[in-house]
Amino acid sequence: MDVADPLLDFTCYMGRLMPGGTFDSLFKDGGERSSRAPFTGSIICDTQLYWLNALIGRCFYDFLRNAWWADRVKEKLQRKLSKIHVPYFIEELQVTAISMGKEVPVIRRAGYPYLDERGFWVDLDVSYTGSFEMTIETKMNLMKLKRTDIKQIPSSSSVSSVDSRSPVTDSDEEDSAESSTDEEEEAVTNPEERESGQTSKKLLRYLNKLTQSRYFQQATEYKYIKRAMENVSNTPLQLAVKVKSLVGKLAINIPPPPSDRLWYGFRGPPRLVLYARPQVGERVVTLTHITEWIERKLEIEFQRVFVMPNMDDLIIPILRGTDVL
């Protein structure tokens, strides 16, 4: 695809969302463009939903390519990641870059809409293979492993009580896994994820026991070891996280008026496939346990925010009535 040709870029994007043969009349000139005509009909959905997928895709074409919208998505992701509890020697996760991907989620099937005391509802079977990517950066502050720092580690309860604002009452506050514990995390993972999580937790417990030993604390006082720890602590750890696919049943809810929000969440854990590729400084490295831990944390965070009874929300200005003016 020649990205320098805006029309070809747009038609290739829309071609995936259209029924087969849609662009035949547009590319009948017999020239070079006809040999690169967009492939059409690549999505799988109910016939009556082609128009809806095409309409949504057209509306979000510029959204996927606009830097302003990318920054808004980045800010929202950062607010959620800031809620994740990390081991005391790992700094807060920071989103440094994102790529919105080149596709929007596809609605494969739609259920019958209905009303109840909580408002309007409709269930959608959705599929996403747009390869959304984000770069997460953090640091392993090994100097916190020294005994003087270990004594200052706050408990989980004290961390949770720092900010008691609720996303229900504060529109700028993000819902997240801010009060999660290891026991709760195990409850939302499948056996394979639980096995990986147990391995990571064993490593952390072993590391905690090792760092509290007298020999380790004495070793950290040696000049060369201390300098090496400082160098590692000042080296950023980057992870390129890529969402390969997401498939599940998405529930859409708009509460009765007055309400300016659209709520969405999955009915049961969706099939989520994501990968994290670590890089320390300028070198791509293999840090299996840390990578697995961050991947698992991201999956848990996703479930706690987007899997019912938890739901995320979007503000829809046209639902505000005259207040929007």
TrEMBL record:
InterPro entries registered for this protein in UniProt: MMM1_dom, SMP_LBD
Subcellular localization(s) per the UniProt record: Endoplasmic reticulum membrane
GO biological process, one term: lipid transport
Keywords: Endoplasmic reticulum, Lipid transport, Lipid-binding, Membrane, Transmembrane, Transmembrane helix, Transport
Annotated stretches, region: Disordered: 154-201
GO molecular function: lipid binding
The UniProt record lists the keyword Secreted: no
Compositional bias segments (type: Low complexity): 155-169
Cellular component annotations (GO), alphabetically ordered: endoplasmic reticulum membrane
Compositionally biased intervals (Acidic residues): 170-187
Ribonucleoprotein as UniProt keyword: no
Domain SMP-LTD: start-end pairs: 45-317
Pfam families cross-referenced by the UniProt entry: MMM1
PANTHER family membership: SMP-LTD DOMAIN-CONTAINING PROTEIN, TEX2 PROTEIN-RELATED
The name this protein goes by in its record: SMP-LTD domain-containing protein
